[in-house]
Amino acid sequence: MTPPGFAIVPAAPFCAVARKHKLNATDIMVYIALASHIRHSRHVFPSVERLAEITGIPHETHVVRSIGRLVTAGLVTRRRTRNAKGQWDSASYTLAIWCRNH
């Protein structure tokens, strides 16, 4: 699998939100992994498995919890879709603070 690129995250606004919401290192790693998927817009759709692989977080549950904290902090919006059976199928994310990927 292709490794992600790198992302430029505006430090001042991101750090202010991270401090205010007491985000931990795992939360920040997940945000950066999400940001590394940006191509032409702030909308990204990596799987939880892919985020765990990129960050080296051994338990996907921890990735899901970090995404929840990022949503609560207002850094990420999550849109989940259901399959034909009504089960959660996939998610896409929108990053609130503009980042650039190179």
Brief account:
With 102 residues, this protein is an alpha+beta fold.
The helix tally amounts to 4
Strand content: 15-25%
| Structural category | alpha+beta
Reading the helices and strands in chain order gives: EHHEHHEEE
The CATH topology name reads Arc Repressor Mutant, subunit A
- Specify the CATH class: Mainly Alpha
Query: Order of strands in the sheet with the most strands?
Result: 2-4-3
**What's the CATH H-level homologous superfamily?**
Winged helix-like DNA-binding domain superfamily/Winged helix DNA-binding domain
Mean pLDDT over the full residue set: 86
Sheet with the most strands, sense and barrel status: 3 strands, antiparallel
Helix content: 40-55%
How many angstroms does the end-to-end distance come to? 18 Å
β-strand number: 5
When the domains are counted, the total is: 1
Approximate shape: globular
Low-pLDDT parts are none
Notes on the protein architecture:
- Helix 2 crosses helix 3 (48-55) and helix 2 (25-35) packs across helix 4 (60-72).
- The protein is an alpha+beta fold.
- The mean pLDDT is 86.
- It has helices at 11-20, 25-35, 48-55, 60-72, and strands at 7-8, 43-44, 76-82, 88-95, 100-101.
- A hairpin with a 5-residue loop joins strand 3 and strand 4 (88-95).
- The longest helix is centred in the middle third of the chain and has 13 residues, at 60-72.
- Strands 2-4-3 form a 3-stranded antiparallel beta sheet, covered by helices on one side.
- It is built from 4 helices and 5 strands, in the order βααβααβββ.
- It has a single domain (7-101), classed as Arc Repressor Mutant, subunit A, CATH 1.10.10.10.
